[in-house]
Amino acid sequence: MTGRSARAIVGRDGPIRVGEDGVLWIEGRAARELAEEYGTPLYVTSEAQIRANVRRLRRAFEARWPRVTLLFATKSNANLAIRRVLVEEGVGGDCFGLGELTLSLRAGVGPDLLVLNGSNKQPAELRAAIEAGVTINIDDSSELDLVAGLAEQLGRPADVCLRVLPFTYADPATLEPELAEIAADTSHDKWGMDRQTIVELVPNALESAWLRLRGLHLHVSRLRPTPEAFELASRLIAGCIAELHDRFGWQPELLDFGGGYPHERDPESGAPSGSHAVGTPEEYAEAITSTLRTALADRSLREPHLLLEPGRRLVSNATVLLTRVGVVKRLPTGSTTWVNVDASTNHIPRVPLQGYYYEIVHATKGRDVGETEVSVVGPTCVIDLLGEQRPLPALRQGDLLAVLDVGGYAEVLSTQFNLLPRPATVLVDGDTCEVIRRRETIDDLLVTQAVPARLAASPLGS
Predict the structure, then answer these.
(1) pTM flag (> 0.90)
(2) Comparing 196-200, 206-210, 453-457, which segment has the lowest mean pLDDT?
(3) Residues 437 and 322 placed together within one structural domain of the fold
(4) Known catalytic residue: 161?
(5) How many structural domains compose the chain?
(6) From 95, 161, 240, 381, the catalytic residue
């Protein structure tokens, strides 16, 4: 199998690119120089790429809808410095739990630009949200009562939206098979409420002196790499709004459309980049807004303020994981060439967990086309397969590879299996590079552990 060159995969323009000499660049810094200065494995993030991602997605929706606000899915990347970059771009936040809420507030996100999500929110995080003035997306009827009670205790009304399972409004018999399957699978999700529950809760929320019902929330997620499911959800949520207006005379001020917007190389697909169609921000914006506008206009309903919760779309393609080649081994009795590297699936855990396909490229031979298939593996005591049977240029010990698109759901999910310290993260801004998360040490891995005195006092070997 003949592969593609790193230059063909990464591109020759943009903040992360492969130059004429075949070297991978992150803005004004060569990957090989960063690896030498900071060591490997190393997460390297381009600030310019994050800003470009934000501006493109916002521009796509604002060109088609009057009021749009981006709320970053904090779960995808919880680095404080990256959060600050997004604050400078005017991006709010979608938070799960007290940790993400605290990080967002410390990063300087205004409470009016934050929402709190979660299927089992605890009183402490709900109190913090109410006190700060953060909107709470209600996930269950019991939670509505809990929030109202806490708001009364605090003497401050709580802003709430109701999380809808939009596909409970669908008739699967009228849908094409793949969308019918999506509707069936997501109509009983862990998060959100069905049609009947929503109808029951709206009057309760409207009648409460301690609740301000501001809108509705839904989350389609990345069910497929193109926007058909979002288009269907737009039509279904418009039907939900119409039903609530007919019954109660209420329309949402806010419509939080959640996240799930892919980026171009789409590692979630489990397939090489370029092997399938991936929807662009403009295509997603058109699918959502045109469908929603038509469906609302047909019912003489107003257009709500649209909230979006992108995560991977804003940060994934802004980070690469640099890793150094160690032992290259091919046994005479086998057909696989094993390329051992110092990075691990500890650092990109969605490869073994969910079958992600991250592109792996040579960081200094970017013009060479890979003609030999190799399996890239990490150092842990499992198969630790970063990439199986990948066509790469000839490799030898000391070569530098880059795993692309690891800015979302990599560092936040990373583990310390085999007591391996996690990598540092650096942020590149033009020619400037700064550490935004230091490399862990062995002491960091052990600092939370404690040995009872009775064991600490025992003689070794007794």
Answers:
(1) yes
(2) 453-457
(3) yes
(4) no
(5) 2
(6) 381
